[in-house]
Design the sequence.
């Protein structure tokens, strides 16, 4: 029987090659001299084996040590040691290695060098739980005195079990800000030594990467660049060469945008007003809304948990004759965010003149805005039932789509920058609609100017758009003549270059800002260089909460003289409402 060599250490040794760990004397589970014809003296990692002169030396094992992997989920990849003999003539004994008790390798004693030569190093590969080194007498015969020393038996152990990882705390409620705290646990059979990098990301975008080791971990994640909605939060933990652990997913619910809300008013006779409430939230959903008269603390006119409704109201319940008031709509979503919007001014008639006088609405909101309310009020208007609209034109038109007989342009503009829009209204015979009043309305129905058509029915607006969507040029008649255009905006990106000529080894610095600020917050900005006909990334930066960014790149100190074409690009992400933008192109001289 093999006798126990001592207690095994449970802490892993340092990895030597990826997931290979080295264990020495602490991995020796047992050693023995089975037939009692030899003896062994151990000093640390040195084993001195002596077989005295024997009339007949029996065949079989004369000395053996067993080394076992001390960590579950691992295997022995190799056994190494050094050996030297002290007797002159090699005998009929062999040096053998066993893998899980099966013979894996052997060599005659003559392979072991004789002192004073240096001990010979051996390393035998295998894949086993137990590795044994032994001396095996190959024939029964008379033997002289024999002495060997075996030094530093060592096993190389490979970790074959991936680490485990699990979420322990992910916010269950809606996240309404750009920061959130998460917690998880990582574990491995080799402890922290068996765990590599730990990563957290959403949709391929990294939010956290570090190697904190085994145990409970936490991190505060920056969600500035992540769109609202139900997002899959993925936790990955690398092993020590065994590949990533099975990923752990959790659902993160993000809603940082209050619900959209609007009130459209139409004046009616006899102190009446028609209020159309529209509330929507595509992310967490509408929780409720309340419409009040006169102010946010005024009397409640209507409330609901649906997306909106239309009601005819008696203005006499809320305003005196001739008094002008507003309605205030407060809406909240299921994430707890709220929005408050104010209606256009509404004036209760002071007296009836020639019959019932309609309630007057001042200002505009709703898709058709002020011209829509005027047309609905019943006041006399010219007959536009046969008026046709020609496609709106702009020098920034990218394409057209057809809506019936009408071409609808897709116009690419820049946030808050001047944009010229023109169009034409015609009679059926092709003659221009002269001196018609034309409104230009944004997607929410607010007016951005009025003008009169010329003798050919043409009109022109100069506008600084701050909202993407369908804009409408509306000629005031009954029915309204409408010429739509879809405007898509790029962000306004400024760039300031530190120097257009720098020396090798110096750092190029480009700074700027993205407008609007809310759209620029947390946005990725790229510095690209042109190689042939292809633009390639050179440096990346993320805009701060005010939309400001700084790009830097250090050129090699050993670079020769050259000119490099550069550009600053703000790419478009999924869910981002703006078009990609190229802020500037510049040639920088190096050297």
Sequence:
């Amino acid at each position: 029987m093999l006798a126990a060599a001592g207690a095994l250490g449970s802490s892993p040794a340092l990895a030597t090659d990826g997931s290979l760990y080295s264990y020495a004397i602490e991995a020796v589970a047992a050693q023995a001299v089975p037939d009692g014809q030899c003896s062994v003296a151990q000093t640390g990692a040195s084993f001195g084996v002596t077989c005295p002169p024997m009339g007949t030396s029996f065949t079989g094992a004369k000395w053996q040590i067993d080394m076992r992997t001390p960590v579950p989920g691992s295997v022995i990849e190799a056994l190494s040691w050094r050996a030297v003999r002290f007797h002159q003539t090699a005998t009929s004994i062999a040096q053998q290695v066993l893998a899980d008790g099966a013979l894996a390798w052997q060599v005659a004693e003559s392979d072991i060098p004789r002192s004073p030569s240096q001990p010979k190093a051996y390393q035998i590969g295998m894949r086993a739980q137990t590795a044994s080194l032994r001396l095996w007498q190959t024939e029964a015969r008379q033997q002289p005195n024999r002495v060997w020393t075996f030094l530093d038996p060592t096993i190389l152990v490979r970790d074959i079990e991936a680490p485990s990882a699990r979420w322990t705390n992910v916010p269950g409620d809606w996240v309404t800000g750009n920061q959130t705290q998460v917690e998880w646990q990582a574990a491995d059979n080799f402890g922290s030594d068996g765990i590599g990098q730990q990563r957290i990301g959403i949709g391929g975008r990294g939010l956290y990467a570090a190697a904190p080791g085994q145990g409970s971990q936490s991190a505060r994640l920056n969600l500035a660049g992540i769109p609202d909605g139900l997002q899959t939060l993925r936790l990955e933990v690398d092993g020590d060469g065994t590949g990533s652990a099975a990923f752990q997913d959790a659902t993160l619910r993000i809603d940082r945008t209050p619900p959209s809300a609007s009130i459209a008013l139409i004046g009616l006779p006899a102190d009446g007003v028609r209020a159309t409430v529209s509330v929507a939230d595509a992310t967490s959903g509408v929780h409720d809304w309340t419409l009040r008269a006169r102010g946010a603390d005024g009397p409640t006119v209507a409330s609901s948990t649906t997306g909106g409704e239309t009601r005819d109201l008696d203005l006499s319940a809320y305003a005196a004759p001739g008094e002008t008031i507003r309605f205030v709509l407060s809406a909240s979503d299921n994430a707890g965010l709220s929005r408050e919007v104010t209606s256009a001014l509404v004036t209760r008639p002071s007296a009836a003149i020639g019959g019932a006088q309609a309630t007057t609405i001042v200002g505009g909101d709703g898709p058709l805005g002020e011209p829509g309310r005027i047309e609905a009020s019943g006041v006399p208007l010219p007959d536009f039932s046969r008026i046709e609209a020609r496609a709106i034109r702009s020098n920034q038109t990218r394409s057209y789509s057809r809506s019936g007989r009408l071409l609808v342009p897709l116009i690419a503009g820049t946030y808050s920058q001047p944009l010229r829009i023109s169009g034409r209204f015609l009679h059926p015979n092709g003659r221009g609609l002269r001196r018609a009043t034309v409104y230009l309305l944004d997607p929410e129905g607010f007016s951005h100017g009025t003008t009169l058509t010329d003798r050919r029915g043409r009109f022109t607006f100069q506008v600084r758009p701050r909202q993407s969507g369908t804009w409408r040029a509306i000629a005031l008649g009954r029915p309204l003549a409408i010429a739509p255009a879809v405007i898509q905006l790029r962000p306004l990106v400024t760039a300031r270059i530190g120097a257009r000529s720098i020396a090798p080894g110096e750092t190029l610095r480009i700074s700027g800002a993205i407008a609007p600020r809310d759209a620029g917050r947390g946005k990725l900005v790229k510095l690209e260089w042109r190689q042939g006909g292809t633009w390639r990334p050179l440096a990346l930066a993320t805009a701060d909460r005010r939309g400001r960014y700084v790009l830097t790149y250090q050129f090699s100190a050993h670079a020769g003289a050259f000119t490099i074409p550069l550009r600053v690009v703000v790419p478009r992400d999924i869910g981002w409402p703006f078009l990609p933008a190229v802020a500037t192109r510049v040639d920088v001289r190096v050297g």
Summary: DSSP finds two helices and 49 strands in the chain. Confidence is low (pLDDT under 50) at residues 1-12, 352-356.
